[in-house]
Amino acid sequence: MNLLDLDKVCDYVNENVIDFHQHRIGSLEGLKLEKLLTKNPYLFKAKHIMTAGELVSGLLEAFL
Question: What mean pLDDT is predicted for residues 32-40?
């Protein structure tokens, strides 16, 4: 098994981390509540979520 060259890994991450975060921010900017609500809300009932804020927060975390 080949060992990882950590310098190459660091270089790759440094080159691509900005694109990763820009893509993530772009997906959040275009996100609508309707899309979040397509997730299965029954899974969140099992987590004992009591408020709408907790539901939206949980759905957003699941989206990310």
Answer: 79
